[in-house]
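G., before I forget:
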Amino acid sequence: MNGYLQIGYAQTAIAGLLIIANLGLSAALRLGLGRRLVIAALRMSVQLLLVGLVLEWVFSLENPLPVLAMAAAMTAIAGVAAVNRTQRRFAGVYWSSLVSVTGAAFFVTGLALLGIVRVDPWFDPQYLIPLLGMVLGNTLNGISLSLDRFVESLVQRRDAVEATLALGGTRWEAAHDQIRDAMRVGLIPTINSMMVIGVVSLPGMMTGQILAGAAPTDAVRYQIVIMFMIASAAALGAFGIVFFTYRRLFDDHHRLRLDRVRKVAA
Amino acid sequence: MLSATGLGRRIGDGWIWRGVDVELETGENLALIGPTGAGKSLLLRCLAGLDAADEGRIAIDNKPLDERQMPAYRARVVYLHQRPALWEGTVEDNLQAVFRLAAHRSKGYDRSVAIRWLQAFDRDAGFLEKDAADLSGGEAQIVALTRALSVEPSVLLLDEPSASMDATATEQAEELVARWVAEAPGRASMWTSHDVAQVERVADRTLTLDSSRATIS
């Protein structure tokens, strides 16, 4: 089996009519979502069409530099987006997120490209870009969940954390519960999705490969590899951000430095 | 025993207090008084090393505070928060958990000692089984004070330690601290309180914080 039915721009536009269901419901129930819905639908279409063009261009160059530039841009956007989903920030939080997401995603994707899928040449964008993209999306999620929970629980449980410090506890002893909690929150979505995958949900990449004509058993093996990549990258990313945040919000004199945190409207 | 010279704390452009000297002698109970917003809690937190001072120095037993050894210092100079913060679990969990900190691991929890502290507040062993989350504000302050005493500190920095206690418990807390200070050499306490009568009862000496400097009377 090979090949797939191509969809033209006209057919794509027809699919856009499906959004009328949302608009109708929004109007009938006075949800007030009509405007945002239209903007979201337009953004989604424009962003994807542009990405399609950029990808085709990058694919045609057969040169590692544009591929890496694109990977770097995707990673930077993921690093910023992870922070922007949280409400409490501190100086250096964007750098912490960028380093965490870059370290986790590049390490795991690199390992998969070179060691597991064994792509030749290593920068082949047909593999590098989609694999990195999927890893980034999930790492971003893990990082923002862990970051949000860690800072939030330090603020909420400030008295208990400081009580430990005031009684002679080290910063590690004082932050330990919050660190564990933040790591758990960051890792739960990956574990949950591994639990139900294939039973409740059919993952997008696997369905995509099947639609493109791949044998289901082949597509499934790819998906398993991806899930392991996602799981480890999300864990590494969450660990990275929690570590940097810990170093930033507890100083060398074992003081809790919530004065470095400010709240922003998300 | 605990001394601070020329302490100053700034928030934004203004000084909360500046040029504050504190000299806490062994066996002494010192009261820190001043209007609301004078920064009494901030000064105690500074002395406990929980906040950094913007100027000045702190010494214990004539040795300057070594900031790299902060946990060891805080194990000796224990600050009690105005709002007592207990950890999750029962009262006994709270009294026990403190001995899992590296700074106190060598000492070990002794149930009979804990009960003896609680008896000063007319609480018996049954009180140990209570869930910390179910305690009243005054009871939580009792547990926090007991927890602090149990680690055998040298200095207790008490920030409104009886603000949520009833009259009986307040009196018992005052007695307990006074007895603890007098019981062995090398102990001292420092209090803040809104209650003028309490200050007169507990203090050997007072330190007044006003907007920019501190005076000792």
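The CA atoms of residues 87 and 97 of chain B lie 9 Å apart. The two ends of chain B are 19 Å apart (CA to CA).

More on Monday.
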